[in-house]
Amino acid sequence: MEERRTKSYGTALLVPSVQELAKSSNLALPSRYIRPHDQPLISDDHNALNFPHLQIPVIDFQKLVSEESNSELEKFHFACKEWGFFQLVNHGVRSSLLEKTKTESENMFKLPLEEKNKYKQAPGDLDGFGQNFVFSEEQKLDWCDVFALTTLPIHMRKPRIFTKLPSAFREAIENYSMEEEELAKSLMTQMEKALKLKDKEVTKLFEGGTQATRLNYYPPCPQPEKVIGLASHSDSSGLTIVLQVGDVEGLQVKNNGKWVTVKPLPNAFIVNIGDILEMVTNGEYRSIEHRATINSQRERLSIATFCNPNFGVEIGPAHTLITDQSPAKYRRLGTQEYYRGFFSRQLESKSYIESMKL
Ligand SMILES: O=C(O)CCC(=O)C(=O)O
Ligand SMILES: [Fe+2]
């Protein structure tokens, strides 16, 4: 077991691979993974009984961008306001690229541990194989391993990791990253339209922005009700686009106090509003809490792309949205200051964005 501290973004401890732990036969679940019993971790029966058809909205990208369809724009606006989440179909990203990205991502987790160790998270750097947001020996841990990469801008890619990547994975992720960048831009343009914003107030912030891609690998666990894959959180990003490998359910989204289990549509993207877009839209669009649950039989892999503003800009409510009747609800601060604060604390529900409220 190796533990280190990172420096540049606060502290983070490295903990052993959950994937390796899950391989052991007769696994005695270490207590640092066992969650308290006050929250049901497996999908909420009450919810399943009463709202069997409750699902996050599905948006058709081609309809959304076609000038004719105002109804899809309204649906999109509603999804961003009320759910903070939607599945995006007909998005135009080639399925051959999606298949390649998924297969090569799976291959990364199939590498032997010695190979993976070549890409281990290093002090002061969250890129590589490891875990998220580990700050103390006492804290409960997620049943998940991650492989994180800074993907854009190109000059911020970590040579320590990027130059060593298997070429097939590297090619897939480079192409995928560009497609996601374009898609995020198009979605933000539609947000400007739906919110009637002037002067490209959203897209400007994200021009030349940073993008991080994180593969989340959730091994099966013999006692899935005792652990959590990813604890409840909202994303610190602007916009997050998730591609799920396979059809195993696990992602749950909070809606009116209930956990709704997402049923992923094949090759659809699951898109969600991050804290920064909540701030920029002055709370019109909401970054909603979500979490990942674990399966007793099957592993699950998701590929999350976090689209963030340019490091050189200030983030805060768009000027068009601030009026005497609707004053700014969030403070304004530089992107770097925002991220420094975010990475120095434990991931906990919506506590970080709450601290931005005026
Ligand atoms: O695994 C998932 O579906 C969700 C991942 C997620 O919420 C995240 O990476 O922030
Ligand atoms: Fe998330």
UniProtKB/TrEMBL annotation:
InterPro entries: DIOX_N, IPNS-like_FE2OG_OXY, IPNS-like_sf, Oxoglu/Fe-dep_dioxygenase_dom, Plant_2OG-oxidoreductases. One of its GO terms (molecular function) is L-ascorbic acid binding. The keyword Transmembrane does not apply. Keywords: Iron, Metal-binding, Oxidoreductase, Vitamin C. Transmembrane segments: none annotated. It comes from the Eukaryota. Residues 209-309 form the Fe2OG dioxygenase domain. Signal peptide: none annotated. PANTHER family: OXOGLUTARATE/IRON-DEPENDENT DIOXYGENASE. Belongs to the iron/ascorbate-dependent oxidoreductase family. This is Fe2OG dioxygenase domain-containing protein. It comes from Rhamnella rubrinervis.
